[in-house]
Amino acid sequence: MLTSNAAPNPNGRPFAYRGPHLAARHLTVAEAFLSQVARGGTYPAILDEQLGVALTWRGYGKAAQNVSAGLRAAGLGRGDTVGLLLSNRPEFHIADIAVLLAGSTPISLYPTAAAEQLAEILDNAGCRFIITEPAYEDKLEAALGLMDCGAPQIVVVGRDSWMMLLTNRSAQPTLAAISMPEQSDTATVIYTSGTTGAPKGVELTHRNIMTTITEITRRIPLRRDMRSISFLPMAHIAERISTHYIPLITGATIVCCGDMAHLVPLLQQVQPEILFSPPRLWEKLMAATAPAYQRGADPDTLRRNIGCSRVEIALTGAAPCPPRVLDYFRTLGVPLRETYGMSENAGAVSIADLDGAGCVGKPLPHNEVRVDEDGELLVRGPSVMARYRRRPDATSAVIDDQGWLRTGDIARIDNTGRIWIVDRKKDLIINSSGKNMSPANIEARLREAGPLIEHACVIGDGRPYNVALIAVDDSVRQALGHDTADSLHAAVQEHVDQANSRLSRVETIRRFAVVPCSWTPDSDELTPTFKLKRRSIQKKYADVIEALYSAGPADSMPR
């Protein structure tokens, strides 16, 4: 059943729209966009940080088609790849869709990546064009100097090269020249953030993405009048899904936040209906409000102070969320739910309900799941990636001949079908006595012990006992008045003792070191989504770790 204002399809297939969860999964991302443009009209699609209407849906459509026509005129062909080194800004959305309308593949690049990392990714991607912004020109130039393949054409937002595309007049009539992709074509390549080595390019098809977003909208009630703030890197699948692809079928409005320093003020001003973030933001919002809540402050006021007064859909993912954080926000009136997914499955395997903490819920209907003999969670379905780009060896290592994707996570599935994630398979600690344990569980206990411990990395594989590297929250340290190393060490020791009281003897932390600097996605210790880079940490702090183990027998930890 066609809507009266549905956009025509140059490939001849009708843009049937029967609600986001019924027809959209059979479209490509490009078709979903054009259909939403036809329905959305003058409704705001994207707002900038100043909350001006950067783009209506109609303006979004015109801009994307103009840029697409300009790229094709400059030599972009069907199947080519285009790198996007951009912050969270309206031009990202325009550029990404423009590339898709050319039958090509957009690839997001992490702005925080080092030049060497960018060069490695660009060599693998083989980009014909790169679209960037002035802030990243120097880094990109350094990366291009390290590349093995030929140099791509560079387009810089805000400069003549971009304005010529944006004002391109050859886009009229726009639809006739569009080289529409097929569902089996690659819609994007997500480069994994490298917690286990060099990044691998996850090729996701239009079918992968459209299946995922339609199943999400079946599970979660999303509406056109909802707003969401885009602040995580667009190179991460969770941000792409939540603030780029899903609005193509819901028509929701996205507010771009290109600077994390502006996030909290923007949350307070926008009061969005949808908020997705890794646990770290939720932990910080909890730390900012929990003391006042415990003193009896009004929950409505506290929610408004952190930008959550209107939140209807609150989600966390990309890393395990401590149950105490989930419980706190639910008590505060924010319906925080945990999600589980990975780039290789187009971002979403399951979404938890609100009836508990600690599990990641039942799988979305399109996903089959099972646990193998080693306890590893396997997933199969139409959202499983096509392949790792130019890495057949790596692809065959994670997808078997029956289509089962190895997630790398140790899990259990209870008798109601809910998934419980235990740990990363490769992260499990097996100590010198052969005891298995989860470092993530121990690290969660350390963070839960108090606000002073911002990050912790537990080491113990092949060792007689566990030690920890601890990064403290500097703002909390200052607020608590720990101005000397001895004072800080004593305070952290109290937190470690409290965490140890909740752990088995074999899991306890016998020694720790407080690292001298914060861990951020710009440093060597965290990915852009705040996951620990364990290999990098152990290499960087090798001398510190060895000192912890060479100081003589560890003190016994009475139980």
TrEMBL record:
<protein>
    <submittedName>
        <fullName>AMP-binding protein</fullName>
    </submittedName>
</protein>
<dbReference type="GO" id="GO:0016020">
    <property type="term" value="C:membrane"/>
</dbReference>
<dbReference type="GO" id="GO:0005524">
    <property type="term" value="F:ATP binding"/>
</dbReference>
<dbReference type="InterPro" id="IPR042099">
    <property type="entry name" value="ANL_N_sf"/>
</dbReference>
<feature type="domain" description="AMP-dependent synthetase/ligase">
    <location>
        <begin position="36"/>
        <end position="388"/>
    </location>
</feature>
<dbReference type="Pfam" id="PF00501">
    <property type="entry name" value="AMP-binding"/>
</dbReference>
<keyword id="KW-0547">Nucleotide-binding</keyword>
<dbReference type="InterPro" id="IPR020845">
    <property type="entry name" value="AMP-binding_CS"/>
</dbReference>
<dbReference type="GO" id="GO:0004467">
    <property type="term" value="F:long-chain fatty acid-CoA ligase activity"/>
</dbReference>
<dbReference type="InterPro" id="IPR000873">
    <property type="entry name" value="AMP-dep_synth/lig_dom"/>
</dbReference>
<dbReference type="Pfam" id="PF23562">
    <property type="entry name" value="AMP-binding_C_3"/>
</dbReference>
<dbReference type="InterPro" id="IPR045851">
    <property type="entry name" value="AMP-bd_C_sf"/>
</dbReference>
<keyword id="KW-0067">ATP-binding</keyword>
